[in-house]
């Protein structure tokens, strides 16, 4: 998306996995970027992000001066979900970094004069919205599921939707597992396989919604520029895979075996109620993105992992 009449795009989570590829992509496309960070003096996006403007924030409350006059907002920030122990304090951090920050964003947008208000908000969500649904094919019209992450995503999307009452177009991206060599889930999955100690999780038959990081960046840019994309958008590849298929493809790319199945009880013992997010099945498809004409560069695991591994 080219900045509207030179107006910048505001990005949170710019120093995270997705943000580090998104910001340079926006800059290359001619957009100005303001990114919110807790520590502007130490934030670093690499040489490609040196033209972006850092703005200090506390992770919850949006400075209206950063939002005023921007073309759009991309809200990616949030505390990592998979961290142990999964305590009450941890749950509160996860909740506040997503729901409270998004509520404050919507409120701050409403307090701006209409002529200063960004026209679009692209907010992260997750395919955890659907809970575990077995073999059911899940598109954006599917009902929410059960569990901590499903409840979190419902509240998260509701908070983002409040911005629509101020005339801001809102797209909530239900993001699957992001495949990227520099961080996120892929290096964690690949590490034990590199040492010959990896294998499927549980029975391995659960569907794993995934997306290559470059396709996610491109879909974010599509959501910024395409006025037809509002509401929930599944940010997943069009060809879902089972956990056993994902594990086998990683092993094939690394030329290593992946025969040591990780039993479900061990995952439950380690992660407690979060174990369902790894053992659960979500056969999600990107119906709205495809209908909007979005073209995935990496539709299959083989092409995505060939690039990242």
Topology:
Elements (H helix, E strand, L loop, with lengths): L7 E5 L6 H10 L3 E6 L15 E4 L7 H4 L4 E4 L12 H24 L8 E7 L10 E2 L9 H14 L7 E7 L1 E3 L5 H10 L12 E2 L1 E3 H13 L5 E5 L5 E2 H12 L9 H8 L3 H5 L3 E2 L2 H5 L9 H8 L1
Parallel strand pairs: 1-2, 1-4, 2-3, 4-5, 5-7, 6-13, 7-11, 8-10
Antiparallel strand pairs: 9-12
Helix pairs in contact: 1-6, 3-4, 5-7, 7-11
Question: What would you say about this model in short?
Answer:
With 309 residues, this protein is α/β, with parallel strands linked by helices. It has helices at 19-28, 64-67, 88-111, 148-161, 185-194, 213-225, 243-254, 264-271, 275-279, 287-291, 301-308; strands spanning 8-12, 32-37, 53-56, 72-75, 120-126, 137-138, 169-175, 177-179, 207-208, 210-212, 231-235, 241-242, 283-284.
């Amino acid at each position: 998306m080219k900045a509207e009449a030179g107006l910048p795009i505001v990005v949170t989570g710019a120093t995270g996995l997705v943000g580090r590829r998104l910001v340079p992509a926006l800059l290359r496309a001619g957009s100005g970027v303001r990114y919110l960070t807790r520590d502007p003096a130490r934030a670093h996006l690499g040489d490609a992000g040196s033209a972006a403007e850092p703005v200090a924030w506390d992770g919850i409350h949006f400075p209206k001066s950063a939002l005023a006059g921007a073309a759009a907002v991309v809200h990616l920030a949030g505390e990592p979900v998979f961290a142990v122990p999964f305590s009450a304090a941890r749950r509160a951090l996860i909740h506040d970094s997503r729901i409270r920050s998004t509520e404050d964003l919507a409120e701050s947008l409403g307090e701006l004069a209409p002529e200063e208000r960004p026209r679009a908000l692209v907010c992260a969500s997750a395919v955890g919205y659907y809970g575990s649904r077995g073999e059911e094919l899940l598109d954006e019209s599917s009902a929410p599921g059960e569990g901590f992450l499903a409840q979190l995503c419902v509240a998260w999307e509701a908070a983002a939707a409040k911005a629509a009452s101020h005339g801001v177009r809102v797209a909530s991206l239900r993001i699957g597992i992001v495949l990227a060599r520099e961080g996120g889930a892929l290096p964690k999955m690949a590490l034990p396989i590199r040492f010959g100690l990896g294998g499927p999780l549980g029975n391995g038959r659960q569907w794993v919604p995934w997306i290559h990081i470059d396709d996610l960046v491109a879909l974010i840019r599509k959501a910024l520029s395409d006025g037809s994309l509002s509401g929930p958008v599944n940010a997943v590849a069009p060809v879902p895979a089972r956990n056993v298929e994902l594990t086998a493809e990683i092993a094939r790319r690394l030329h290593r075996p992946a025969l040591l199945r990780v039993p479900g009880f061990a995952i439950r013992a380690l992660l407690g109620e979060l174990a369902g997010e790894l053992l659960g099945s979500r056969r999600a498809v990107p119906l709205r993105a495809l209908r909007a004409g979005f073209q995935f560069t990496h539709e299959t695991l083989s092409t995505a992992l060939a690039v990242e591994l």
